[in-house]
Amino acid sequence: MNKPKFAIEAKQLEKTYKASGKLPAKQALKGIDLQIPAGSIFGLLGPNGAGKSTFINILSGLVTKTGGSASIWGMDIDARPREARSAIGVVPQEINMDPFFTPMEAMELQAGFYGVPKSQRRTEQILDAVGLLDKKDAYVRQLSGGMKRRLMVAKAMVHAPPVVILDEPTAGVDVELRRSLWEYVGELNKAGTTIILTTHYLEEAEELCDEIAIINHGEVIASEPTPQLLKRLDHRSLIIYPKDPLQVVPPALSGVDASIRPDGALAITFRSSETGIGRLIETVREANISIEDLETEDPDLEDVFVEMTKA
Q: Where is the ABC transporter domain (predicted)?
């Protein structure tokens, strides 16, 4: 399978759910244009109800689009539906497996669904990669929540898809499991697999993703390389460490956006385009605060996300 420029490409993708009973019609996707580079780790973020799940479900064939087009690994989902969906593996948010199957049986069944010949199956290799080889013959109902989550990832990999979508994969799992899961995802990506991640852990997306798209009210409101997205906010924080820790913001600083941190440091949020650091330092000194040290902080992804989706 030749590597295309984009793992996923959507053009004017729309979805309107028809009115049902007392529920009115709802336009879940409003002409989305999105290009996800092949080989990247791409973050897909947005508030609940923004349209992320609808977008994923259209790609995986669970929801029929209303308009526009979408392709997976260069294959249109309408013109070549079977091939397009064979190029994608989806790890859903909900854990849904037969509790009386073993991981081995669940994996073999999934491989059969995708028509993977027995000679080409890598069931034990994949289970080993996600740390479940020693549980291959246990019933799924005997596995912990974290193990079930890892088995979901393993099932998505049975047909070696070039694109994997992880929908909130670390929701409700402990820190150690989250770390091991991301190590495995990192190895997949290094081997060439494109990873698409939805998560509510914004620090996770900031650390892992090469690019991030933010969806809100069915529209893509940003899609940029992560460092570029973080520069979208025109505000920074100046952290002043005084010789004597402060308890309250001095009245002389009532004209700036200032707060006291637990360690007694003074944090001043300012817009780079409007206020220079030199002027802020001068204002602090005029308030009779002796400065021992200072530093600046740039906005993180959570700041950008809240700012862009608050409307």
A: 8-242
Sheet holding 6-17, edge to edge: 26-37, 6-17, 67-72, 75-76
**Edge-to-edge strand order for the sheet containing 257-260?**
257-260, 266-271, 235-242, 291-297
Of 144, 143, 124, 142, residue with least CA distance to 133: 124
Domains, the chain: 6-230 (3.40.50.300), 235-309 (3.30.70)
* 53-64 confidence digits (pLDDT tens): 999 999 999 999
**CA-to-CA distance for 153 and 97, rounded, in angstroms?**
12
The Cα-based distances of 274 to 234, 271, 277, 286, 295 in angstroms read 9, 5, 10, 20, 19
Q: Which residue has the tokens 């950008």?
A: 304
- Write the pLDDT tens digit of every residue in 278-300: 888 988 998 889 999 989 887 77
CB atoms closer than 10 angstroms to residue 207: 11
Beta-ladder partners of 219: 216
pTM above 0.70, yes or no: yes
